[in-house]
Amino acid sequence: MKFKCFTMLCFLVCLSSCKKYDLNGKEIRYHELYKANWLIGDWEKTDSIGTLVEHWQIENDSTYLGNSYFIIKKDTVHTEDIDLTQDKEHLIYNTAVEGENDDEAVPFQLTKSSDSTLIFENPKHDYPKKIEYKLTGAKRLSIKVSGLLNNKKIVENYQLAKIN
After folding, report:
1. Which residue of 21, 85, 87, 122 shows the fewest CB atoms closer than 10 Å?
2. Strand 41-46 and strand 152-163: pairing?
3. pTM of full prediction above 0.85
4. Is the pLDDT of residue 111 over 70?
5. CA torsion, points 53, 99, 94, 128, in degrees to nearest 10?
């Protein structure tokens, strides 16, 4: 009986030690970030122009890291580093594009989500203002980027397939 109690106590201590707590002792849960689990992996689109690749991985319990790049004839012409971080109750999509915004990240806050959709917005930014990710099938991802560029509304759509 003592062994069972000791084993149960050890299990509970181990389980509770995996949790994170704020300064007030309240357990921190990353439920907003977990909504984006379906992003994890490698996504790709190849057409006559080139290849677009987006890679997502888990950094830790509150952050996913993404990297997007576009290749034309073996030359990488666009690179973007992304981190998806839960900050308190908000999910923030930070994107840094090489050669833009002094290579500083631009934050976009999650404004709408479902089991298969994530919409991030930054109304103060010119382009993009809105970034939408939508899982359109088990291995299909749609990305829609929209905003104002030179005072003209621009919408770009990308359809990627999961690889690996």
Report:
1. 21
2. antiparallel
3. no
4. yes
5. -80
* Long-range residue pairs from 101-107, CB within 8 A, at least 24 positions apart, any chain: 105/81
Q: Please choose, from the candidates 88, 84, 93, 89, the residue with its C-alpha nearest in 3D space to the C-alpha of residue 40.
A: 84
Q: What is the pLDDT of residue 1?
A: 55
Coil/strand/helix, residue 35: coil
Cα dihedral: 144, 147, 153, 159 (round 10): -10
Amino acid letter, residue 68: S
Q: Which amino acid is at 153?
A: K
What is the percentage of the chain residues whose pLDDT exceeds 90? 67
- C-alpha 65/C-alpha 43 separation (Å) is 14
